[in-house]
Amino acid sequence: TQHIAPRSYTRRGRYPVAVLPGQYTDSVPEYTSEKMYTLPLNTALVCSKAPVEKAPETVTSVPKNITVKCGQCSNDLGKSENVIKCNKCRYYYHTKCMSISKTMMKTVTRYAWDCSSCKTCSVCDSADGEESLMFCDICDRGYHTYCVNMSALPRGRWECRLCVMCACCNTNTPGDGNWRFQHNDHLKFLQTMCYPCSIYFDKGWFCPVCLKVFDYDAVDDPMVCCDFCDRWIHTGCDNIDDEHYTMLGESGSLYKCILCRGEKEEVYDKHHKKYKEGNKENQLVEKS
Q1: Do 109 and 101 form a contact (C-beta atoms < 8 A)?
Q2: What is the pTM of this model?
Q3: Pick from 24, 44, 25: nearest CA to 34
Q4: Which of 46, 62, 147, 203 is the most exposed place for a label (fewest CB within 10 A)?
C-alpha cells in the first residue's frame, strides 16, 4: 500500500530554508527561557541552574539578652549603639573604635567586613607586609601599596578601585593625572574628582551649591550668575523654574542666589568671590 502524506505536510512555504534539520522558518517555535537554557538545541542535556548565593553581609546589631563587649575597648556594647561584627574573628566592635563613619557604613555592610586585626589585602589575600597595608576611606577594604602599583602609603585620603569615582563626570579613571580629593578650608572632605574635572574646579568653574564643574563653552544645565557674589548657580540647585529663569534673563532683573540669601550653608569657601557686606550689594540695590 502506498502511503501518501497529506498535502499540508508537503506544501512549500515562502521560506523553504531549514533553520535546524527538519525545521523550517514557517514553523519556528517560540522558546521559553527554560528551553533556551538547554542550548544548543537537541544536543544539551537539561541541567539544573546553579543556585544564586547571597553575598555575605556584615552584622550591625547585638543579639538580644546577651552581654557583648567591644573587641577593641572592652566596654559593653549597648543595644542602641552603632556596632559592627568581624566576619573572621566574630568579635563585635564599636564603629567609632574602628574609625568607621556613618557614610562608610553604607558600603561596609554590603560585604563580609573584617576588623583591622583580621584584614588581608583584597588583591593577594595576604596579611603579610602590614607596614604597606592601607585601607580604603569608603569601604574599609585593605590593599598593599605594591599590589595597586603604589610606591608608598598615600597622604590623607585614599579610595580603592572598587569605590573611586569622579563626583562630577562619574568616570572611574583619573585621566592624565591622579585623583583629586577636594577639601574645604576646615579640611573637611567634600568630593573626589578626576584630573580633567579638577582643572575646571581650580579655575572656579563650578556651582558652589552642588560643586559640579562646568565648561563655559559648553554648559549642559541652565545656570544663573548671582549679582551679589558673582558665582554661577544651577537653576535646579536654587529651585528656579522656567518662568523665573526667563524673567531673570530680562534686563534690569537682579538675582540673589540661595547662598547669599542665607537659605543654604556654604560648603566650599576657597573660591568664594562674595563682596564685603555693604559694598556691591548696596550698590546694586541703589541702582535698582
Answers
A1: no
A2: 0.58
A3: 44
A4: 46
